[in-house]
Amino acid sequence: MAEGEGEGEGEAPEEKKKGGVKKLIIKIVPLLLIALVIAKMTVLKPPPPTAAQVAEKAAKAKLALDTKCAVANSLQAPKAPAAKEAPAKGAAKGATTTTVPTTPTTKAEPAGPTLDLDSKTMNLDGSHFLKIGISLQLPVGSVPDTVKTTENWGSMVSQLVIDTFSGRSFAELSQDALREKLQHQIGNEVCQRTEGKVITVYLTDFVMQ
């Protein structure tokens, strides 16, 4: 047998070994990637919120909306719920720490554009009637024409105004303080129902005969 042929036969197992390692790597890499994805979806993914956490988030959102609407309509802003005491982390058994409630800001939002609605006429007590002009105060950045075509707030606000004033007496509605109070109540109610997309309601005309 020639010397060169012997050397060639000796190199074959080494090359075969290298090829096996490459094949093994090619098989392992996808498995590692799959394992990483699974770990990210299970181990690394945060657990879903508990019922208590969901309720707490909803309560905070409601408090923020209630405060926003009250401030915009010159009403008393609601108070934050009472602080809860929770066990202190790492403290002795029975020790508690006080959780300070977060009070939403009470600063009124900047005034945006307004959307005028059709005037409403209604009967008062006796033979009198009342004509009211209505305008909606929208947040900054709102487009009144777009709001008018995409939302059905006009019907809701008009009905609320009619329900509030219809059937009242001429003498009762002659009181400026009462009219202002009722306007603020309407504005606050509309702000709540629209989730703050209407900040308040203005009564631009108020004619009684």
Verbal overview:
With 209 residues, the chain is α+β, with helices and mostly antiparallel strands. Among the domains are: 51-98, no CATH class; 114-208, Band 7 domain (Tetrahydropterin Synthase, Chain A), CATH 3.30.479.30. The protein is built from six helices and five strands, in the order H-H-E-E-E-E-H-H-H-H-E. Strand 3 (114-123) and strand 4 (129-137) form a beta hairpin. The radius of gyration is 35 Å and the shape is elongated. The model has no long low-confidence stretch (mean pLDDT 82).
Please bin the fraction of helical residues. Answer: 40-55%
From the structure provided, what is the oligomeric state, counting identical versus distinct chains? single chain
What Rg is obtained from the alpha carbons, in whole angstroms? 35 Å
Helical run tally: 6
CATH top-level class of the domain at 114-208: Alpha Beta
Features:
Tetrahydropterin Synthase, Chain A; 209 residues; alpha+beta; elongated; two-stranded antiparallel ribbon; 5 strands
